[in-house]
Amino acid sequence: APSIIENMSMSTRPPLTPSLTRAHLPAAAAVLWGLLVAAGRASNSGGYFWENFAFYWLPQALILGLLLLTRPPLALFTGVALALSAHLQLMSLWISSPIDVMGWLFYLFDFPGALIGTLIARYQARRMAPGRWFKGFLSGFAWVATGLLMNFLLVMFTQR
Questions:
Q1: What is the C-alpha to C-alpha distance for residues 91 and 111, in angstroms, rounded to an integer?
Q2: How many CB atoms neighbour CB 1 within 10 A?
Q3: Is the distance from CB of 84 to CB of 34 less than 8 angstroms?
Q4: If you ran DSSP here, which 8-state letter would residue 12 be given?
Q5: Which stretches of 10-132 are DSSP H helices?
Q6: pLDDT value of residue 84
Q7: How far is the C-alpha of 154 from the C-alpha of 160, rounded, in Å?
């Protein structure tokens, strides 16, 4: 009779963490871009690295985490992650300029639009054919970018 350890190793259950393949590289690169930009912004802040890193990357992590709970297609996740990372990069460039010192508030207040865009893209992904990678990617990117832009314009026009 096999021992308990042998029975556990012969289990047919899938592993808790899926193995990463080449198909995951675009999504990993988009998430890594956001992490690196957040780390770069946070490193310029003196002794408050972790607090500022959390400020810059936690909104992205929350949206991506909520999206992962719905088990989205990989293309959709990649598009959403890329839009969020591009948003952080653009806001980082804007905040670094002497034009607007309080631009970081716009970054934070833009995320309701990103969440709404993510929800719309996820809803639409249910009706897409699984093999339509570019269409899923474009949907995720476009809806999140549109949500961010609409929210940015709304916040900007309420300032005047």
A1: 12
A2: 4
A3: yes
A4: -
A5: 25-43, 49-69, 74-96, 103-109, 111-125
A6: 94
A7: 11
